[in-house]
From TrEMBL:
Residues 22-132 form the AAA+ ATPase domain. The keyword Cytoplasm does not apply. The lineage of its organism: Bacteria, Pseudomonadati, Campylobacterota, Epsilonproteobacteria, Campylobacterales. This is ATP-binding protein. Keywords: ATP-binding, Nucleotide-binding. GO terms for molecular function: ATP binding. InterPro entries: AAA+_ATPase (IPR003593), P-loop_NTPase (IPR027417). It comes from the Bacteria.
């Protein structure tokens, strides 16, 4: 376990470096229990932004939330469990990434990220492995 904690700290440090140097589109993925949500919560606290783990069923609700946060001057949006979002919602996020930074997470690597128009937006992609006490 002693190697896992420094690894998480290294990812946190790398994400901070990216966010502080450019507009970013960052994706974290890993199984349940890998620490994605904890890492996102730490980022939200550091940057004083909302940690959003809502499962938006409708694209219009997601757009309203993003537009509201932008209007409030927020420069970073953190979305947990985006693997539950449909293609249209992920496409909206991709488009909004022109004007605001995103850190997204999912329990699996999303196939949509292989599409060129998504791949070209990615600043970084991190896979988190489960913490094991064995």
């Amino acid at each position: 376990m002693s190697k896992i904690i420094p690894f998480r700290e290294e990812i946190f440090h790398q994400i901070n470096q990216i966010l502080e140097s450019q507009k970013a589109f960052i994706f974290l993925w890993g199984k349940s229990g890998s620490g994605k949500s904890v890492l996102l919560q730490r980022l939200a606290k550091k940057y004083n932004v909302d940690f959003i783990n809502e499962n938006f069923k409708d694209q219009s609700f997601l757009k309203e939330k993003i537009e509201f946060l932008i209007s409030q001057g927020q420069s970073l949006i953190i979305l947990d469990e985006v693997g539950m979002y449909d293609y249209a919602m992920l496409e909206s996020i991709r488009i909004y990434s022109d004007s605001i930074s995103f850190v997204l997470s999912s329990h699996k690597k999303l196939i949509i990220l292989k599409k060129e128009h998504f791949k070209s937006r990615l600043s970084a992609c991190f896979k988190l492995k489960n913490i094991s006490l064995l």
